[in-house]
Amino acid sequence: MAVRKLSILLPHSRGTTDGGTGRPWAPGVSALADLDARRAQVVAAAGLGDAPTRRVVDRFSGVLFRELDYPTLDETARRRARGSVLVFNGLSGVSALGDPMPDHRLGPGDALAPMGRLSTWWRPHLTAALADHLRGAVIWDLLPGEHSAAWTPAEVPSHRRITVRFLDASGRTVSHWNKLLKGALVRHIVKNRLLEPAGLIDFEHPAGYHLDETVSILDGDQPQVILRAG
């Protein structure tokens, strides 16, 4: 059986750590370098060409990234996270955790002149880049709608794309705490290099959610995982 590449797709965070000591962003320093020409256009349009940078994992500080708690992972898990997590954002399209990032809060749903809505502007370029980068991979797609609009998954020939929903005890989709809940899940995935959704059967989410096997779809190339409270 072929060893599959693991990839985890996450949304950016509106919460950020300001400042930084890294050099301003420049082509050739980020993952998926074939996007660099487009990135340079957005960086210039956002007026961030001279801004200092931090690594993505240090830049975004929202609840998802706090729950992932990257610094407390062991070195194997940190290396796995750097190699597998891609953060969708309006400035660079997608970024790996180790990529340099100026301080910004641009989401794919935001508009920026002259590009217009960034999700629409990025979509063909991200889809083409990800079609190559994620070919044959196992993808955990944890993107909300705003970020999902920035690519076309059907045109990316992955091995498997797993989506996840969190439901409360009454069966309603959890929205307010969604990013917090995803952070703990991502931590579990990278610690265990989880390639199969059935690997969540014994997962004990710190907020009390568990895999609901009665409504989850665990087989096929597009599994749908339901984690339910209680």
What attributes does this structure have?
two-stranded antiparallel sheet, seven-stranded mixed sheet, 7 helices, Peroxide stress protein YaaA, 230 residues, YaaA, alpha/beta
Question: What features would you describe in this structure?
Answer:
This protein is of the alpha/beta class and 230 residues long. It has one domain. Helix content is 28%, strand content 20%. It contains 7 helices and 11 strands. The strands form 3 sheets. The protein has a 7-stranded mixed sheet with strand order 4-3-1-8-9-11-10. It is globular, with a radius of gyration of 17 Å. The relative contact order is 0.18. The model has no long low-confidence stretch (mean pLDDT 96). InterPro entries: YaaA (IPR005583). One of its GO terms (biological process) is response to hydroperoxide.
From the N-terminal CA to the C-terminal CA, the straight-line distance is 36 Å
Number of helical stretches of at least 4 residues: 7
Whole-angstrom Rg = 17 Å
What profile does the largest beta sheet have? 7 strands, mixed
InterPro entries: YaaA (IPR005583)
GO cellular component, one term: cytosol
Pfam family, one: H2O2_YaaD
Protein name: Peroxide stress protein YaaA
